Q: What sequence folds into this?
């Protein structure tokens, strides 16, 4: 019997492309598609799929929140995270929410089959590109005098440092959850800091939040 897959992404063209890719495997079948996090949870609870492919940046409920809810509502379902961003915070958030695999969207054509096969066996998987050593650390180019963040980037960093969730940040400053993820990716790139603890330390040193 083919493995049942629930496909979750807020972009129709992305869902269509992923569905076409998955149809190459006769031992898998896409049983439903979700355009936001809340719909993904509802479908997973009702259909109990074998695998959920979950975009990290989803509207109405973030991919991380949806993954955690699916982990509770459908414990046997394996979650594979999909994202444009490979920063440590996004990866850690999805794995802590119950995901078994994390795949970069621009590597989906080469990585997705291995990620799903591994997830079905209960194995973890990380896109090889994310496993390569990088020069980033918590002590990168983080001198507040040398880093120029925009006003909106500072707002997002302040709220992240205060422990706010993506959805809450989006609501407070009037942007979409996906845009919050984009700003976070820019912040990580500029500061060369991937961990939340490192970002909090920088925000304190830069006077963005109080220690």
A:
């Amino acid at each position: 019997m083919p493995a049942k897959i629930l496909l979750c992404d807020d972009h129709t063209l992305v869902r269509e492309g992923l569905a076409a890719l998955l149809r190459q495997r006769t031992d898998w079948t896409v049983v439903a598609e979700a355009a936001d996090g809340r719909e993904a949870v509802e479908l997973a609870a009702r259909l109990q799929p074998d695998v959920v492919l979950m975009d990290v940046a989803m509207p109405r409920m973030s991919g991380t929140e949806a993954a955690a809810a699916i982990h509770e509502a459908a414990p046997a379902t394996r979650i594979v995270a999909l994202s444009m961003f490979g920063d440590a915070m996004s990866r850690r958030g999805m794995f802590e929410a119950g995901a078994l695999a994390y795949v970069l969207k621009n590597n989906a054509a080469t990585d997705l089959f291995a990620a799903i096969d591994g997830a079905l066996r209960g194995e973890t998987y990380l896109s090889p590109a994310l496993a390569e050593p990088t020069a980033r650390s918590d002590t990168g180019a983080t001198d507040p005098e040398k880093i120029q963040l925009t006003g909106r980037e500072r707002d997002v960093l302040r709220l992240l440092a205060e422990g706010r969730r993506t959805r809450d940040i989006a609501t407070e400053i009037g942007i979409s959850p996906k845009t919050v993820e984009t700003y976070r990716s820019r912040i990580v790139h500029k500061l060369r800091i991937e961990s939340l603890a490192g970002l909090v330390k920088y925000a304190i040193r830069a006077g963005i939040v109080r220690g």
